[in-house]
Every structure is written in C-alpha cells, then in structure tokens.
C-alpha cells in the first residue's frame, strides 16, 4: 500500500531521514529508542517556544492558546479511538505511567495488583513501588520466552476476582512483539470486571492502531518522541472512572483535572501534527470519510509496510541472505512471529552484540545494544544472554536500507 513514490513523499516529511547532523549519511534503525521527528513538529515546537503568553488569561493570545489545546485534545482522542475520558500531557511517558498507576493503587483498598514479566520497568517499577509502600499483593504473569510476549490465556490463568489494578504492555521494545490488549483486557474483566487496567503504549504507538473503545481499559500512555514528535512530554488518556478516584490536584483546584501548572501549548500542538500526519497518510492509502477512518487506514498501511521490511531483514532481499539464514544468528521471539511490530532483536554466536553494533555504526547503520540490565534483563536473562542487537524500523524505512544492513552483517559475521 506504500508505493515507492509514496515512500519518497513520506520520507520528505521527516527530519534527518537519511543523514545524521553529527555523523553524516546513515540508515536509522534505532526507532525504538526514538523515532524520526516530523518537520511539522519541529516547526510547531519552535513557533510556540517563542510565544510568551500563558493560557487562562483574558487576552487574544491566551484565548488562541486554549483553542489550540482544545483542538489538539480532540485530535488526540480521534487518534486513540477513544469515545470518552480525557487526554492530557505530562513530563514523559514514564512519569505518566507512574502517576496513573499511583492514582489507581492508592485509590483502591486491598486487592491484588497484576502485571507481567514482559513489561518495561516504567510500569513494573511503579507497581512494585506502590505495592511495597502500601503493603499490597503484586503478582506477575510470566511471559513466553520463546515468543517474546504474554498471552491472554496467561493473564486469564492468573487473574482473581480481587484483582483491582492491572497493567499491560502493548508492545515490547526489546522483543518487538505486540500483545493482544483487547483479549487480555477481556480476560481480566471476565473475572474482575471493576479492575483498573492501565496500558503502556509507548513502543506500539508508531507501529499500528490504538483502539481504546475495543480495548476497554482505563489508562493508555505514549511517549510522543517515539511517534514522530519530540522529547520533553508524554501523552496520557484516562477513563472517567479512573479520574473519579481523585488524582492529585492543587487545593481548591478542579478535581477532575490531571493537569498541573501551565501547559506547554507546543506539546499539544506538536502532537496534533502527528495526528495530522496519520490523517494525511490515511488519505494517500485509502478513501476514508472521517479523520478516524483515515487514521485506521494509515495504521493498516504502516503495519503492512513494516512487515515487508522485517520479512526482508529475516529472509533476505535481492541476493543478500537474511538474518535467519546467517549461521549462528538467533532471533528473539522466533523467526516468523506474527506479533512482531517493526523490530528484530538478535544475537550471534562468537560475535559480541556491542561489536556488531559498532561495526554497523562504522558503516552508517544505526542500531542499538540491549543489555541484560534493569531495562531488558527480564527478556534477555531467561534466554541466557547478556546482550542482544536491536534493529528497529518504522514505515519510512526502505528495503534498500534493509539491504545495506544485511550487506554489512554479512561482512561482520564472515570476518
């Protein structure tokens, strides 16, 4: 659905798509660490950084800023596929996960807190922290080491009627596998219908659709720098029932508001740029009548293109062998895993992950080492690995870039 001509147009909308301002020409396969930024988001950020006025005043600038924030929230709701609740920005995706989880755990008395071993420490650490502080029972559902994911069946076997807060990772930034959030949420609610469910959507956001109506959850968090915007803020959606627990707020302030202090209008506006981009892309690959229709079409096209890229990386392109065909290479999560979202993580016998990444970088191919530390040890340690190479792609990457990567890998492993 993304033709070569459209791919060229897509790449033209992003900053530094094929060059690094410090290194020069390079292929960017480090999208899980932070995706490329839309030119529009760069321009919007600069524009609003120069505006001195605050919201909430009675002057034309303040009124305009409030209108921009309101419109941006509506756009974000469309992008998330939400029919109720509210959207707000915070310091980062991690900070917002901590805040939502703190509100949910502190707002419930007794009961089980449930998460999974596949999760990023942003959610696991928040749950563990408040379980310890408030003397709560925190349980972890084991993920499938071979598949790199946790299933709805695994949650169903672990959930109990007294489960009151649960967390779900939408996509792993280490294995690259997406979880079936809809099925997991349904499995939780079948046993504990009033459970507060909070989703870490940070890695998933750039790779596919978010449908909060179908998901039936109470919180969803993303980091915009991983979905074509900039660093410095996070975006959260919260349900009305989570808000009813009473988030922290200034004494005498609005009790249903999650916002603290003066908002960065540029944050809201630059996320609106992201929504506008999905809207535009959906219009190129489909004929949807509404913005949400076009966002859904964009999600389908993104998923299809990224599958083409990961298939080429695993099985080869042209006369180049894929990773699965190279001797001594092991793929995290298995080779042909339908849950994979634009990411291949691997290790090679006899060549350290750090050395592979360094060799790729020397040839202008940007990848990343994942170590068995507090970020990735939950995935790598059970596999007996101290480190692995993460190659993460987005829909603006090309098969030619995959070919460049495979060409270097052939040299690295043959040397």
UniProtKB/TrEMBL annotation:
| Residue span, Aminotransferase class V domain | 28-405
* Keywords, comma-separated and alphabetical: Aminotransferase, Pyridoxal phosphate, Transferase
One Pfam family named in its UniProt record:
Aminotran_5
According to the UniProt entry, its GO molecular function terms are: transaminase activity
The regions listed as transmembrane in this protein's record are none
Q: Which PANTHER family match?
A: CYSTEINE DESULFURASE (PTHR43586), CYSTEINE DESULFURASE 1, CHLOROPLASTIC (PTHR43586:SF8)
Q: What is this protein called?
A: Putative aminotransferase class V
User: What organism is listed for this UniProt entry?
Assistant: Octadecabacter arcticus 238
